[in-house]
Design goal:
The protein is an alpha+beta fold. The chain contains five helices and seven strands.
Length: 180
């Protein structure tokens, strides 16, 4: 039997509660698998000032009904229409429902809407599901010298990029459908 659940809504960060969920979701996985770095603390502690105010965005996925934030991803702005896809997290209890794919599609659309022409990211071979997600979205591996920054996270042993074109698309809403 197949059924469709209510759609997960992905939208830009709007409240302090969204910011707190962004911080908590990311601190959980980073602290569990790696070491939380000073730059992590700075970005996670002030997403409005460190990401949104500088031309980027944080997208949050909310559970239908409760409005609880169950996933997030950040787009950090760099010169030359480049964005870093960073701080993607999905609540452990909601993993396996396609929320990561939903966030990835929304982030690519949002980067285009912001005028982005290139996305880059750093990940780690320990994060095999994330690495697979990025490859499925079209990201390709790049050498460290292709990054727009010289000092990047120590935990990033895989670097990737995706060429995107500018778009006039606005806010992204995508439905996640579960099948039984």
């Amino acid at each position: 039997m197949s059924y469709a659940s209510a759609p997960i809504e992905v939208s830009s960060i709007a409240t302090q509660s969204d910011a707190e969920a962004f911080q908590a979701l990311n601190e959980e996985w980073i602290s569990r698998l790696f070491t939380l770095e000073d730059e992590d603390r700075a970005v996670l502690g002030d997403p409005f000032g460190r990401i949104v105010a500088t031309g980027g965005d944080v997208l949050v996925a909310q559970e239908p009904g409760s409005g609880s934030v169950i996933g997030c991803v950040a787009l950090l702005a760099y010169p030359d229409d480049v964005f870093e896809l960073a701080k993607m997290a999905v609540a452990p209890a909601t993993q396996g429902r396609g929320i990561g794919r939903l966030l990835m599609a929304a982030a690519i659309d949002r980067a285009k809407a912001l005028g982005g022409t290139r996305l880059f990211l750093g990940t780690n071979t320990k994060l095999a599901p994330a690495l697979h997600l990025y490859e499925d979205a079209g990201f390709v591996r790049i050498p460290r010298n292709r990054l727009p920054v010289s000092d990047y996270y120590a935990r990033a042993d895989v670097l990737m990029e995706l060429a995107v074109g500018p778009s006039d698309e606005g806010r992204t809403k995508i439905a996640v459908q579960r099948q039984a």
